[in-house]
């Protein structure tokens, strides 16, 4: 239309007439320029987003928001532009090239969308792995895992499972099975069980272990229902953003003084657990990474907990779910309490932490692929959230193929959500990012040493991420 319009416009307004071919070139130039400028503006917008989420201390008045972004499956040109520029802004880092901590980024992997060569977003999947190899984010979620795929409807992003932070997942909906979606819902509360303590108390008696475990689960359910009752006693005006802005499902139907009880029923109530490995050592003498017998028992324990949650969901019509607890603080707190009561029991309470959820202990020598295969079945049981980590040594940026092999192993094994951890060293003086042993590979300094400003100025001519110290030179 523009090509037809331009010659007519020139002629009708007394300008020099142009040919159809010239109009075609002008249209192409305009489109190319507009796209380039839009792409540049999008990069700046993504850069601003990352910087703002790492600097705005609006959480509890003193912390940055714990934010998460799930992306990777939008195949529109506009969506691809946003995804690409968010990844590039993350790769560039913050001021002086520092690695951004937030938002937690999760790249959604899906066959037919981005997993295989020829998929429309395959290039973005490759870029995501490159960025993660340098910046630790994005993590990767796998929509083809059976427990995620069961909800997936092509073209409906609301049916694509999204993870929050380091594992939380909300999808199934017993309260309203027709709305098993991601958006407009959340986790209402979760309480975690100290499994190693139960293992110690059971004194290697498996039947006694299950008796105590059921008592703890009953206590957790009672506490969750009590908290839920308090939450339901609130009115819509108590939640001006979640309810007042129509964020939660059906909240737009609420008047200011309406109860939020029916709306909150779309949320989840979760029981979590920590220290499966130490529990198995207390019960059998070995954890699930080193003994097949212990592995089977561990799987039975977690399966039992999941069944209790499913049964309670059917009984109450509420979404009771099982969480593989993150336990960033709890892992240390629980073991300190148990050390005071039981002393240091080898393999159980003799470290400064309990192992995260169902993970194979980090100190146990095991290959990345074997670890993934052992942990994958537990992802299907923990419907409130889960994650598996793989620790890699060395500079992963120099071996992206190895990084990709780990991600693909996770996908094929049935992992729901996975992450690859690796060393990310940074020299604050010269801005070098990578593996640093005793000496910085870029500026040659040891820890605690300085570098002449003249040398830094020379390095700045070669590397764009060297901090600018010109203001210090007189």
From TrEMBL:
| A single Gene Ontology CC term | anaerobic ribonucleoside-triphosphate reductase complex
Protein name, as recorded = Anaerobic ribonucleoside-triphosphate reductase
Recite the UniProt keywords alphabetically. Answer: Oxidoreductase
E.C. number: 1.17.4.2
User: Which lineage?
Assistant: Bacteria, Bacillati, Bacillota, Clostridia, Eubacteriales
InterPro entries per the record? NrdD
Q: Which organism is it from?
A: Candidatus Acutalibacter pullicola
Provide the GO biological process annotations.
Answer: 2'-deoxyribonucleotide biosynthetic process; DNA replication
Q: Which SUPFAM superfamilies match?
A: PFL-like glycyl radical enzymes
Q: Name one Pfam family in it.
A: NRDD
**An annotated Gene Ontology molecular function:** ribonucleoside-triphosphate reductase (thioredoxin) activity
């Amino acid at each position: 239309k523009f090509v037809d319009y331009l010659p007519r416009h020139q002629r009708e307004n007394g300008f020099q007439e142009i040919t159809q071919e010239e109009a075609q070139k002008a249209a192409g130039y305009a489109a190319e320029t507009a796209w380039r400028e839009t792409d540049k503006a999008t990069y700046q917008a993504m850069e601003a987003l990352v910087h703002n989420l790492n600097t705005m201390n609006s959480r509890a008045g003193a912390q940055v928001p714990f934010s998460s972004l799930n992306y990777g499956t939008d195949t529109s040109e506009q969506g691809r532009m946003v995804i690409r520029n968010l990844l590039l802004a993350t790769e560039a880092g913050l001021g002086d090239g520092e690695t951004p901590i937030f938002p937690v980024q999760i790249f959604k992997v899906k066959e037919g969308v981005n997993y295989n060569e020829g998929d429309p977003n395959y290039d973005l999947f490759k870029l995501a792995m490159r960025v993660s190899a340098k910046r630790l984010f994005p993590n990767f979620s796998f929509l083809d895992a059976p427990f995620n795929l069961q909800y997936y409807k092509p073209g409906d992003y609301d049916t694509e499972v999204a993870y929050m932070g380091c594992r939380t997942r909300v999808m199934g909906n017993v309260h309203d099975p027709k709305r098993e979606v991601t958006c407009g819902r959340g986790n209402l509360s979760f309480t975690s069980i100290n499994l190693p303590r139960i293992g110690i108390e059971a004194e290697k008696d498996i039947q006694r272990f299950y008796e105590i475990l059921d008592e703890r689960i009953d206590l957790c359910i009672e506490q969750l229902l009590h908290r839920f009752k308090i939450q339901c006693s609130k009115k819509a005006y108590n939640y001006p953003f979640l309810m007042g802005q129509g964020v939660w499902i059906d909240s737009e139907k609420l008047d200011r003084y309406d109860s939020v009880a029916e709306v909150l029923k779309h949320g989840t109530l979760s029981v979590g657990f920590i220290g499966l490995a130490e529990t198995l050592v207390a019960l059998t003498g070995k954890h699930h990474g080193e003994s097949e017998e212990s592995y089977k028992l561990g799987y039975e324990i977690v399966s039992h907990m999941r069944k209790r949650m499913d049964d309670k969901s059917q009984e109450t019509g509420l979404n009771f779910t099982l969480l593989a607890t993150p336990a960033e603080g709890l892992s240390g707190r629980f073991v300190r309490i148990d050390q005071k009561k039981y002393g240091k029991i080898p393999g159980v309470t003799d470290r400064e932490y309990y192992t995260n959820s169902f993970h194979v202990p980090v100190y146990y020598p095991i290959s990345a692929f074997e670890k993934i295969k052992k942990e994958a079945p537990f992802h299907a049981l923990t419907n409130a959230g889960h994650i598996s980590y793989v620790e890699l040594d060395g500079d992963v940026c120099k071996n992206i193929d190895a990084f990709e092999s780990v991600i693909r192993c996770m996908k094929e094994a049935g992992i729901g959500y996975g992450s690859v951890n690796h060393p990310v060293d940074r020299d604050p003086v010269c801005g070098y990012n990578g593996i640093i042993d005793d000496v910085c590979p870029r500026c040659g300094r040891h820890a605690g040493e300085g570098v002449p400003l003249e040398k830094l100025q020379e390095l700045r001519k070669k590397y764009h991420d060297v901090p600018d110290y010109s203001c210090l030179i007189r």
